Amino acid sequence: MSLHITDAEFADFQDFVYQHAGISMHEGKKALICARLGRRLQHYQLHSYAQYFALIQSPEAVAERQVCIDLLTTNETYFFREPRHFEWLTQLLRGLPPSDQTLRVWSAASSSGEEPYSLAMTLAEHCRQPWQVVGSDISQRMLERARLGHYSMMRTRNIAPAFLKRYCLRGTGSQEGTLLIRKELRERVEFIQINLNQTLPPLGQFDIIFLRNVMIYFDTPTKQAVIDRLVQQLRPGGHLCIGHSESLNDLQHKLQLQAPSIFRKPLKTWT
């Protein structure tokens, strides 16, 4: 069986991913499609990507469509990625007075959970009020991994030793070389499946939203729609953090730039 993908087949998957996830896949992603979907062709004993594409288009192939979306939209992440955001968050939390109001933080592209657990460790360490972390992703497979909170030690190099001791358990025996987020921290993080390219479910308002390293895969109209949705979920005075390689320069919004890649929603409600 040949794993070569034709231009026409690639175009079908480009359109599929854009329609379902808002992600624009450029020509250089052909190898990624071949690498990630090749095993699905083998699983179904198919002889072309066109056959697999026809399979996921059938009405009864709901589960396989989700598998395909999961495979094509999963991105690499790790604990405390882009540490300046966590340094900023630490300073913000230290400056907040004690309060009975719950501080709500949303990791809007949480992948396998490293970002929301990094947020939870930071909040557990420095927040002087009740807090909640919500992690969301389009990939159900990634969310299942995130809920487990079980990772290779190779992925934890950016976790401070004190955080490793307080919030993580090192595996022994058959689990040697792995780490488990402590149950009491896992229980503070809620994971839900959300497609940012669609109408959002009822989520309530958030004080901080992390939307990092995902908009680089969106075209401008998709970015605009996603930002419009997320700004509606920010409380007045709340903050939005995007990836350091991303920008809102080509978008319409009324957020105020606070620091590189950190924006604040004005306290005054606009019309």
Protein model, in words:
With 271 residues, this protein is of the alpha/beta class. It folds into 2 domains: 7-73, Chemotaxis receptor methyltransferase CheR, N-terminal domain (Chemotaxis Receptor Methyltransferase Cher, domain 1); 83-264, 3-Layer(aba) Sandwich (Rossmann fold). Helix content is 41%, strand content 18%. The protein has helices spanning 7-21, 30-44, 49-57, 62-73, 83-95, 114-126, 140-148, 161-167, 183-186, 220-232; strands at 103-107, 131-137, 150-152, 168-170, 178-181, 189-193, 206-211, 234-242, 256-259, 262-264. The strands form 2 sheets. The chain has a 7-stranded mixed sheet, sandwiched between helices. Strands 3-5-4 form a 3-stranded antiparallel sheet. Strand 1 (103-107), helix 6 (114-126) and strand 2 (131-137) form a beta-alpha-beta unit. The chain starts with 6 loop residues before the first helix and ends in a 7-residue tail after the last strand. The model has no long low-confidence stretch (mean pLDDT 92).
